[in-house]
Amino acid sequence: MLKNFLLQNEIAAHFDESLKKHTTFRVGGNAMCIAMPDTAEKASLLLKFLKENNIRHYFLGNGSNVIFRDEGFDGVIIKTFNFKTLSLDGNILTAGAGVTMTSAAKFAQENSLAGLECCYGIPGNIGGGVYMNAGAYGGEISACIESVDYLDENGELHTVTKEECDFSYRHSVFMKNNWLIVSARFALKEGNSAELLAFMEDIMQRRRDKQPLDKPSAGSSFKRPVGYFAAALIDECGLKGLSVGGAQVSEKHAGFIVNTGEATCRDIVRLADKVTQIVLEKKGVRLEKEMIII
Fold first, then answer.
1. Any idea what the CATH number is for the domain that residue 289 is in?
2. Is residue 191 located within the same domain as residue 91?
3. Among candidates 68, 82, 74, 72, which has minimal Cα distance to 36?
4. What pLDDT score does 115 carry?
5. What angle do CA 65, 294, 284 make, to 5 degrees?
6. Which of 104, 189, 200, 291 is most buried (most C-beta within 10 Å)?
7. Is 205 within a domain?
8. Residues involved in catalysis
9. Do 187 and 224 belong to one domain?
10. pTM of the model
């Protein structure tokens, strides 16, 4: 039934697909189905079909902050990487959920517009960035958002303003609702293209120098505790290199848990929990995972 629906509506899909191929951590079991609609209209039809047939689903962008359990996902993963709209109207940049944050930042810079440069180098898509209010080096994607288009649980299209998105540190209203982000509009400011490029290249170089970009990971594994830095706390506890199975606290950056080759989701979760316990015992600070575990 699902296969016929997808074929009839020309929605590309993979069945019994390994989720290792769809996350930057390269872990997880198989998904029953990974569907890849290339328009909001097709995504709307798919959501309505899944609701009518009581089929579980989950939305996935670039998979850079998500890890799936070793048992896999008994439902439909809806990938939004085909939502590639990227356009400019004056200083308003519209980006589809599937556009990478790096591409959006570069597009803005090339048009001498400032506001998205903090997103340069973040290994995720606009949809995921808006979902978790991604940011780095003192900036957050929410700073210049004007509005967001999304499909609700019934497949109906809506638009919310920045204020309605309820942004805070690594949080948005989308985390509390089963809504599919379609696109976002950003109100940018005039900037100097050369200066913006220099800043972005400096950010990228700092990433290369400090972060273990050569190993699979989900980026920063823990949220920043109020008044502290997670990586510093972990480092001060002497936990660099600590391993559980194929998961390891990076020897290059203590804030990253990396896959040394054959890590499982179980390894990663056990290691993250062990780090949390030791930091709490030694520093009195409770760390919270930034990784989303499905």
1. 3.90.78.10
2. yes
3. 82
4. 95
5. 70
6. 104
7. no
8. 170, 220, 290
9. no
10. 0.90
Does residue 106 share a domain with residue 74? no
Residue 46: give the domain boundaries.
2-79
Report the CATH number that the domain containing residue 19 is assigned in CATH: 3.30.43.10
Q: From CA 41, how far away is CA 177, in angstroms rounded?
A: 20
How far apart, in whole angstroms, are the C-alpha atoms of residue 199 and residue 197? 5
For residue 208, tell me if it sits in a domain. Answer: no
Please, what is the angle between helix 193-210 and helix 101-110, to 10°? 150
Q: Exposure of 205 by Cβ count < 10 A (0-12 exposed, 13-18 middle, 19+ buried)?
A: exposed
Q: Which pLDDT belongs to residue 113?
A: 97
Tell me the C-alpha distance between 159 and 163, whole Å: 12
SS3 125: strand
Give Cβ neighbours of residue 92 (< 8 Å, ≥ 6 apart).
146, 185, 186, 187, 188
Please state, in angstroms and rounded to a whole number, the distance separating the CA atoms of residues 79 and 63. 9
* Residues 169, 45: Cα–Cα separation, whole Å: 33
User: Under 8 Å CB-to-CB from 215, ≥6 apart: which residues?
Assistant: 250, 258, 259, 260
Residue 185 corresponds to which tokens in the numbers above? 């509009």
The reply to whether 225 and 191 lie within a common domain is no
For the chain, what's the residue count? 294
Up-side HSE of residue 111: CA atoms within 13 Å toward CB? Answer: 18
Q: pLDDT tens digit string along 117-134?
A: 999 988 889 999 999 998
pLDDT tens-place string over residues 232-258: 999 999 999 999 999 999 999 999 999
| Residue that terminates a domain, selected from 195, 227, 246 | 195
CA distances from 19 to 72, 112, 114, 213, 238 (A): 7, 38, 35, 20, 32
